[in-house]
Amino acid sequence: MDAMTTHPWTTILLGALLLSLITVESGGWFLTRVGRGAIPANTLQKNFFRAGHAHAAVLLMLSLVVIPLLDTVALPLGVDLVARFGIPTAALLMPAGFFLSVLGREPARPGRAFALLWIGATSLTLGLAAAGVGLIGGGVAQLP
Q: Which parts pass through the membrane (predicted)?
């Protein structure tokens, strides 16, 4: 496959990520209900719901930008997999950590599910590092 061809698996993954933005859209509707008081939530919950929603949207959009770039270089399989799936995995785990850690009535502090945020942050860091280093190395390898 030449450097400008998109792999079919990339196209499928990008389609799945676009569809997953529908969940972010429904999360926005949920936030409007929280904001209007239709769903009771304390300040911690409101803040965490907003943070979870924002992280989901931003990380999914970042995934849509980074993943097609990976088809422009030849990466070792392990690096490619971490680069390709690290950011979308973070887009699942980080919002889950925000939302799930404040479930219940009037939580005073985040619960154990908050660990998902840090696991997601690790996934994001590894994905960004693999993609960045891989793209730089792949670009250098393509120099005449």
A: 12-31, 52-70, 82-103, 115-141
pLDDT in tens, 15-57: 999 999 999 999 999 999 999 999 999 999 999 999 999 999 9
Residues 6+ apart with CB under 8 A from 69: 131, 135
What would the DSSP string read from start to end of 56-122? HHHHHHHHHHHHHHHTTS---HHHHHHHHHHHHHHHHHHHHHHHHTT-SSS-SS--GGGHHHHHHHH
Tens of pLDDT along 9-19? 999 999 999 99
* Encoded amino acid at 28, one letter: G
pTM: 0.91
Backbone φ, ψ for residue 2 (5° rounding): -75, 170
- The residues near 143 (Cβ < 8 Å, ≥ 6 apart) are none
